[in-house]
Design brief:
The protein has about 425 residues and is of the alpha/beta class. The protein is built from eleven helices and 13 strands. About 40% of the residues lie in helices and about 20% in strands. A hairpin with a 4-residue loop joins strand 2 and strand 3.
Length: about 425
């Protein structure tokens, strides 16, 4: 350390330090003698800067110390720092020389009483639940007979084999489309998000109407991708229902909670998404038998009803009255026929008389007695007077046997006596 001053009056050299020198020396002393330590306390006065650094105090019932968590170390903390959370930190003990404060430079943070991943899960679960991502009224029903099922999983894991096996037993007619992805490790959450988007939007995927997001069991660390916010929001954004079957029955992930349907295992996810072909056959057979039995019952009932109605009609039928009425009707018909024949005979006689009278008045009958009927050829009019036929007029003379064509030479008035008359 640098020092300043003069000897004391008692002959002992007095050591005087500048403030910066004292703080720098204490900082080196802490670094040499204390180094990196684990400290437990409750987070208070938390401030998270836009730069990514976090500043807070660690306190207990008797004291507190300032702490700084810089951006690079903060990225490795899997949960969010919160006021009042009791934590254990690994930190370097230093002196913040600008203020002369004792300070912890935090390298790691662990929650007290539960694991960091479990705390991160609980924090995200509470936040997404408050947003309504887990609400039952938001979740969609699965199609009863899916056209094609998309499967988002590892192409080499046991989960995909389980799904294919179950699908082959339950409803092999439904095609499966695998969208491969890693399901654990760094960057796997982003891969799952891309696989979910690809399975419904890639060319040829238009008929996918339900998606299975599946993987086998594992530790909480293995399932980290399925406890990420980005995967949860990708499930929410999927245009078709998502069935999540992650881990074993006891495993519950954020993906399970936000999915439209949670299945305890990958096999159960396939079972929930596909109809049971054998059960359908049994149901169809039973329904067919019921339909046939119902139809037979309807026909039998109708036959019985018709038989009863016929018997009732027979009991009410006026047979004797109908026979008498039929006899009277036949008698009336015979009388009507006689009357009709007599009327026809009378009408025939009258018709013959009228025909005779008509013949006597017919012009043809007059012609047969030597008379003739003269018509002008030009207009067909009958010539009744001499002036109606001019000299040179062409005439047609009708006699009893036919017609004679003639030409008028002269006309003679019937009132003027001819030479023969004189």
């Amino acid at each position: 350390m640098s020092q300043a001053g003069s000897p004391s009056g008692e002959g002992v050299e007095r050591r005087v330090f500048r403030v910066s020198a004292l703080l720098s020396g204490l900082s080196r002393l802490l670094d040499d003698q204390v180094g990196r330590v684990w400290v437990m306390g409750e987070i208070s006065n938390l401030h998270e800067a836009r730069s990514g650094h976090a500043y807070f105090s660690l306190k207990d019932d008797s004291g507190q110390v300032r702490a700084a968590l810089f951006r690079n170390a903060a990225r490795r903390v899997p949960f969010a720092l919160e006021e009042g959370t009791e934590v254990i930190v690994q930190a370097d003990v230093t002196i913040y020389e600008s203020r002369g404060d004792l300070q912890l430079i935090v390298r790691q943070v662990e929650p007290v009483g539960q694991g960091a991943l479990q705390l991160a899960f609980e924090q995200l679960r509470r936040r997404l639940e408050a947003e309504g991502l887990f609400a039952e009224e938001r979740k969609r029903a699965l199609p009863p007979f899916p056209r094609r099922i998309g499967i988002v999983t590892s192409p080499t894991g046991a989960a995909v084999r389980d799904v294919i096996q179950v699908a082959g037993h339950r409803f092999p007619e439904t095609p499966l489309l695998i969208s491969p992805t890693r399901v654990q490790g760094d960057g796997s959450a982003a891969e799952i998000v891309r696989a979910l988007a690809r399975v419904t939007s890639a060319p040829g995927c238009e008929d996918v109407d339900v998606v299975l997001l599946v993987r086998g069991g594992g530790s909480l660390e293995d399932l980290m991708s399925f406890n990420s916010e980005e995967v949860a929001r990708a499930i929410l954004a999927c245009p078709v229902p998502v069935v999540c079957g992650v881990g074993h029955e006891v495993d519950v992930t954020i993906a399970d909670l936000v999915a439209d349907l949670r299945a305890p295992t990958p096999s159960a996810a396939a079972t929930r998404a596909l109809p049971d072909r054998e059960a359908l056959r049994g149901t169809l057979g039973r329904d067919l038998r019921r339909l046939v039995a119902a139809a037979r019952a309807v026909v039998t009932d109708a036959r019985r009803r018709v038989t009863r109605e016929r018997d009732a009609l027979r009991a009410l039928a006026p047979t004797a009255r109908l026979a008498a009425q039929r006899a009277r009707l036949e008698t009336a018909i015979r009388g009507l026929i006689r009357e009709a024949r007599s009327a026809v005979a009378m009408r025939r006689g009258g018709l013959a008389t009228a025909a005779g009278r008509l013949d006597s008045l017919s012009p043809l009958a007059v012609l047969s007695r030597g008379y003739a009927m003269v018509r002008r050829e030009r207009d067909g009019l009958i010539v009744r007077r001499t002036h109606e036929a001019q000299p040179g007029e062409r005439l047609r003379i009708r006699v009893a046997e036919g017609e004679i064509e003639a030409v008028t030479v002269s006309e003679t008035d019937a009132s003027t006596p001819s030479d023969d008359d004189a």
